Structure formats: C-alpha cells, structure tokens
Amino acid sequence: MRFVLWLISVIPLCILHPIGGFLGEVVWRCAPRFHRRMSENLRQAGYRPEAMAREVSRQLGMQAIESGWIWKRPHRELMKYVKATEQADRLIADALASGRPVLFLTPHIGCFEITPVWLAQRHLQAEGRYMAILYRTPRKAILRPAVQKGRETPGIVPAPADLKGVRELVRAFRDGQIVGVLPDQVPSKGEGVWADFWGRKAYTMTLPLKLARQFNAIRIVAWGRRVPGKGWVIDARRWEGDLTGDLNKDAAAMNKALEGVIRRIPEQYLWSYNRYKCPSGVQRPPQESEARHG
C-alpha cells in the first residue's frame, strides 16, 4: 500500500485524474453491488442513473485516487492547485472575525479532503486558530498511518469518533475555534436520529448540532469542486436559520441544506455511499420496519 500511495503521489494531477476516471468507469461496469447502490441513491434523489451514471462513476474514481495524492503531498504545495470563490473567502474571514466558534460542514461532494487543508493554510495559521476535525478511523489497518499523517497539519487537530474526540470538539467550541465534520456520514448507535434525506429516512448525526446550538456557532457548508486535471475550487454557503433543540427537526434541516448544495454539482457527490444503512443496534424507522416485515 505504501508503494501504491507513493506511486500515486508522483503522478501529475493532469494524468492522475483521467486514470481515476477510467478506473471509476471500470468499477461501474464490473461491480454489480456498486452499480446497484449508486443507481438506487440517484433515483431516490430524483436523478436518472442512465443519464448520470457514467460521469458520476468517473468522478468517484477521481475522488478515490486523488485522496492518496493529497495525503502524500506537502500542504503548501497543494495550495497551488486550490482556488476559492470570493464568497467562500469572505464568508470564512467574516466568521473568524466574529470571534464565535464555527461549525464547518464538508459533505461528500467533490474533494472533501482538500477543504480543511485550504482552510488551515489560507485562514487559520495566519490568525493562530485551529480546527478540530471529527473523523472515523479507517477499518483497514494498512490505511491508518497514511490517512493520519495526511490529515496532520498546523491548524488541524484530528478528533477521533470516540469519547476523547468528543472532548476535543467541546474544547474547540468553548475556545471559539472551528469544528469540521462530514455531516452526511452515518454515525454509530446512539449518535444520531432518523431524518429525511431525499425523501427517505437516513440515520443522521446529532452531536455537532447539539454543540453548535450550545455554543452559538456559525454554521458553514463548504465543498471543493473538482476541476479535472487542474485542481479544486472551494465554495461555501452559510447555513442560516436557528437550531431549535429538537434533534429530529434540526437533523432534517441540516439534510435539507446539504441537498441544496448537492444540487449544485450532483455528478460529484458520493452516490455510492451507503447513506441509508442501519447501524448495528439501531432500530429501523417505523415505515421501513413495516415494509421489511409486511
């Protein structure tokens, strides 16, 4: 695996992305399970798989292979390939200037590995700020050292999805810092609620919502749109509206905000992700339980 990551890291991005696109299309054609899940998720969101599947699979291949490239590259060098819209730059600068903590939501759109790197390099280090990133340890042990090292950088504090990580998030919010999460990642038992996502119940994380309300955090949804062969463009929107404290309503509102962002570049969303899975020990939502036993 180390050799593979090294090999990926020395390939120019203008060559790497086409390779990833080709591999993604091969997987689409040769992996029935991958094909089926992607098609089901696209249909659930109102898209026609036959019209989008080829491009979506190509983008997923690029996403998979570019992650290793990012992990192995110096972060300052990566900034040569990253641009940001004026709105994203201004939004982040204003949020940091406010002195309030920030909840930085980066869903599985485009390149979600590059957005925290950009934030740390462009804004946080110069101001002596940092971001605590909630992450889940990769299941494959061989990937853990590479992922851990790739996500370590001045301005970023990894927070594992356990009690220690929760304490890190609380500390960051309390200190007026930034907390980064993948809001459409399925949480473990007891860490979420069932909320609508494209008209179907998805187990949705609630911890960031609780803490954002408790500490009156500014909420920003950010993403890195991939420009194949050239790099990424960072964009961001503020998630407006009050958090009510009703976790079901707040989780549904977050999912609705994510849907709006995904609509901007649907071909770069991670449609192959098993977003509707039921974590071990969690009871399925009533309508699905009835359908399975009916």
Automatic annotation (TrEMBL):
InterPro entries in alphabetical order: LipA_acyltrans
Primary localization class, coarse: membrane
Keywords: Acyltransferase, Cell inner membrane, Cell membrane, Membrane, Transferase
Pfam entry (one): Lip_A_acyltrans
GO molecular function: acyltransferase activity
Subcellular location: Cell inner membrane
Family annotation (CDD domains): LPLAT_LABLAT-like
NCBIfam families: PRK08905.1 (NF006487)
Name under which the protein is recorded: Lysophospholipid acyltransferase family protein
Organism of origin: Mesosutterella porci
